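Hi L., both proteins are below.
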Amino acid sequence: MMVTFSRRAVMLAGLALGAATAVLPGAVQAARTDLTLGIRLEPPHLDPTAGAAAAIDEITYANIFEGLTRIDAQGAVQPWLAKSWEISEDGKTYTFSLREGVRFHDGTTFDAEDAKFSLDRARGADSTNAQKPLFSGIESVEVVDPLTLKVTLSQPNGAFLFNLGWGDAAMVAPESAAGNKAKPVGTGPFTFSQWVQGDRIVLAKNPEYWGEPVRLDKATFKIIADPAAALAALLAGDVDGFPIFQALENLPMLEADPRFTVDIGSTEGETILAMNNKAGPLADVRVRRAISHAIDRQAIIDGAMFGVGTPIGTHFAPHHPAYQDLVGTYPLDLGAARALLAEAGYPDGFKATLKLPPPAYARRGGELIASDLKKIGIELEIVPLEWAQWLSDVFKGKNYDMTIVSHTEPMDIGIYGRDDYYFQYDSPEFKKVMAELEAATDTDTRYKLMAEAQRRITEDAVNVYLFQLAKAGVWNAKLKGMWQNAPIQANDLTGVYWED
């Protein structure tokens, strides 16, 4: 007997069967292998060895580029392209054993010649590396054989292996290094796929990766600058999450939504009111101390960060065991601030510029700081800048009075000893402490020197130390393997996957 059904009946039956299948116990659905993450800032380019912007490492670190060592989610140093090393008794010579079978994304082999090229390029006279001082202690780099590299330092450096884990120390190839800004070629588990300016950067799984394969086939970094647009994209499912979520006022709502995971961690980001120590009144330590006394840190955390952040009194991460709690050095005291200004010859205050980069903490915080300083007679002209302008005008050109920025590089207190750094702080005493720190390998000794360095820059009121930037991550509750903390500026996707 033949039974016939109308087209409508067949369609309805199919829909019903599909719905039933979707809820059948034990039904197996393949886990997703694509990911779209929202990011606030578009990088100026994609070469971590040639730029200071954190946005570069946030896309490329451990994903596209790799170093001889690597900083893990806990901030510890791990062997990476160097599988092991030996250190001479005098602490000056490091002999690295490199991994076999490593290739760059263009198919060229990674070996000791490439490692030598990378380190020599970073420390060379014409280097454009933003962290060139990290490599200044290297006396020589020698290729022993294709898988053995010898690096000799001019003096022992207890932080050397950690420094090699920065994105600035990524291994690059002479065949492709010149083009890495636009088309990065590394050794990592993801390859560069596409960059649509102003919209997105796309990575693809590297099928020829030397190590453990990643579980994502495709990762897209979607550029969304506006906090309101970020929230809308998250709620609509246009993005799967934000490693660093800007719309902090919405965190309570998102925490109550079972679709999302809200993960508050810490960063290495010391957020400061940076002051040009050679600009007019700011060259006087009494003026800088007055400014430090006039600013209400907690009000800035509450007003600019919706209460998310830890007050700091020096340029050092509070989660580090060597951290010194110096927040009480400059308590909010307008009377003391006015007295210091008068003593410095500015009883009526003065005028200055406050140049602000794009992040919300800077733009919101700038208005609050301008209000605070107005109470002691300092009139600030607020000048909003885009990142390219800020890097050119403030960071490189030193053409500013004050600015607000988060320094997210790990263990970066050494920047206060650089003659050409944009703070323009010059202290022979501080440099002496840093020289002793670089030579020290004993942990207790290093921690004591770190403490002394922290106290010195706070006493000199080089900058106003505001708060430690928190890492407020929000993502789909089924997404696993995202970093809670940011011990280095990275969105490491190597362990990220979707729960079945």
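That was the first. Here is the second:
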Amino acid sequence: MQLNREPSLLKQPVAVWAVAFAAVVSFMGIGLVDPILPAIAGQLGATKAQTLLLFTSYLGITGLAMLLTGWVSSRFGAKKTLMAGLALIVVFAALAGSAGSIGQIVGFRAGWGLGNSLFIATALATIVGAASGGTAAAIILYEAALGLGIATGPLLGGLLGEVSWRGPFFGTAALMAVAFVAIATLLPTTPRPAVRTSVKDPVRALRHPGLRTVAITAFLYNVGFFTLLAYTPFALGITSPVHLGLVFFGWGVCLALASVVLAPRLRHRFGAAPVVAGVLAAFALVLAVEAVFVHSQAVLVVGTVVAGIPLGVNNTIVTELVMEVSPVPRATASAAYSFVRFLGGAIAAWAAGELGEVFTDWSPFALGAVGVLAGLLVLLAGRRHLAVGHDGPAAGSPAQAQALTVGDA
């Protein structure tokens, strides 16, 4: 039977490769700016708190826009939604690269976040729909694109940042412009969905106790996630963008491998809630150790890289839970979850910058550890709402790919 054939990654329509390329570049944006944060602060005369607003504006708008992506894609179709997202990223990434003040970059990053939300909300469905006779292989390709983008984003940011802090922004704009042209010319027009989505649907979905428990857990967990991602470049005291890029390259490799390889195996063996509880405790411990040894560069480097493992496992399994614990459609559940979790990241980046500026270098990591532990308590208190009737999406399935996308992007 055809279902038993080994899928080929290479035998895909050119449209699949176009979307996969765009996905790589989009996922690069997760860690692209980390290596250049100290350079931006130094050359534009900005404080840590002001510089970390780059994350706050980006994540805040991304979260809010998640309430709109279903409404947009259900009315205009996936291709137009993808192209709109890519166009916004091109424009606002280029504007960020040409900015003359930290305030301008913060504003342009907000526009970038809007574009990214439109892209990541529709990329999976598009690449699977464009596959011809090889859906499973297309999904594997998509997951590979995600991992490649997460891992190489900080490295590319560091290399371009050696030339100028503007380099990563212009580099992203150029690559996304290529992706825009490729999708415009190579991807066939996609039909509009039969059912239109309302902006209110994701908010209504949060009434379900299981989905609400997972969303609040993710909100608190992201206090730690984005404290690590946003504040560590300042705490490390590394001035070279390339060296910073290598640190976060190691983090990205660990996160990508844990998401794709480790998470499904752990969940199958121990179950979703126990694994999430374990990795939350492990991540809180890493942040606590970094708070205690904040002046040890070696500890911070090792802690940052190792943290990618629990982060990758947690991102995947928590987002799989999102799609299983409630009866609402998966797209709506994902939008609701993303809305809540990205707002947690936006607040965390702002709070970490303020604490690091006003108090001490260890206080942001302490805040992150407390936030993750609070998320663990919420998970344990609401675990009775997290029972699901199966072991979760299979490896290489559209459901797992969706979990990886929303969890990591």
